[in-house]
Amino acid sequence: MRRPLVAGNWKMNGSRAANAALLAELELRVKPQWPIDIAVFPPFVYLAEARRALEDGPIAVGAQDVCAEASGAFTGEVSAAMLQDIGCRAALVGHSERRHWYHEDDALVARKFAAALSVGLMPVLCLGETLDERESGKTEAVVGRQLDAVLALNGIERFVTAVIAYEPVWAIGTGRTASPDQAQAVHAFIRRRIAEQNANIGGQLRILYGGSVKAGNAADLFAMPDVDGGLVGGASLSADEFYEICAAAAARH
Ligand code: PGA
After folding, report:
1. Which of 57, 168, 248, 249 lies at a 20 to 30 A Cα distance from 228?
2. CA 93–ligand 1 middle distance (angstroms)
3. Active site residues
4. For residue range 48-85, what is the model confidence (pLDDT) as tens digits?
5. What are the CA-CA distances from residue 176 to residues 74, 167, 211, 213 (Å)?
6. Angstrom distance (rounded) from CA 34 to CA 128
């Protein structure tokens, strides 16, 4: 059985005081015995402090991005080894905001995925189509292309320790969630594509849904057979909302 994962993507939000309050509240409320994984993804400057605050408790810390290069003259970048050094366990790669605002293409995302894995970080590979692409019937073509680029560079075996997040761009931060059936259809497509290359890995791969996940819709989304948790943006900034979403994942089985 796949262990659900709830990941909180804080995006460019927070402050030392707000983060400390949010993490303290979450630590108090989430139950270590829940059969789920929980991770938060604060901005880079707050990672070390978040990691110290959470120690080795049930909430892991991950980064929102990672440099594809290992070290050296790449001003402004943060390497996978640095993230690993401060105790990060995961990194998002290919979030749609990175793809859109910073022009990250499939090839770069594939290299970031490799960089994360090279030091033992769990890559959370984000895939998703725009509204235009969905409306013109290209969802599977786009998601398949994004996935194939990462598969081609890394190989199927590297997906053993990876996670995929399906995040339709039209659902991110818009309040417009994909319906559970819409999410399930794309998740099943992604799993099939992986399983075609390796049935075992396809069966074990965790596929998260992201895009306006809230306390009020989490249980319905997580009830879908191929939805193994969520990548949560806006609602991860509220201890109440994020706690309820984690509780919905914990109640899944
Ligand atoms: P949202 O963001 O939950 O605010 O829609 C999700 C994400 O971008 O990861």
Report:
1. 57
2. 14
3. 95, 167
4. 999 999 998 999 999 999 999 999 999 999 999 999 99
5. 37, 12, 8, 9
6. 29
Q: Could you give the maximum distance between any two Cα atoms of the chain, in Å?
A: 48
Query: Is any atom of ligand 1 closer than 6 Å to the C-beta of 62?
Result: no
**pLDDT tens digits for range 130-152:** 999 999 999 999 999 999 999 99
Question: What predicted TM-score, i.e. pTM, was given to this entire model?
Answer: 0.97
Task: Give me ligand 1 centre to Cα 232, in Å.
Answer: 5
Q: Is the beta carbon of 210 within 6 A of some atom in ligand 1?
A: yes
Query: Using CA atoms, how far apart are residues 234 and 52, in angstroms rounded to an integer?
Result: 23
Query: Does the C-beta of 234 come closer than 6 Å to ligand 1?
Result: yes
Residue 253 has pLDDT above 90, yes or no: no
Q: Which CATH number fits domain 5-209+222-245: 3.40.50.1010, 3.40.50.1000, 3.40.50.620, 3.20.20.70?
A: 3.20.20.70
- Full 3-state SS string of 166-200: ECCHHHCCCCCCCCHHHHHHHHHHHHHHHHHHCHH
The three-state DSSP-derived secondary structure of 24-92 is: HHHHHHCCCCCCCEEEEECCHHHHHHHHHHHCCCCEEEEECCCCCCCCCCCCCCCCHHHHHHCCCCEEE
9 CB less than 6 Å from ligand 1? yes
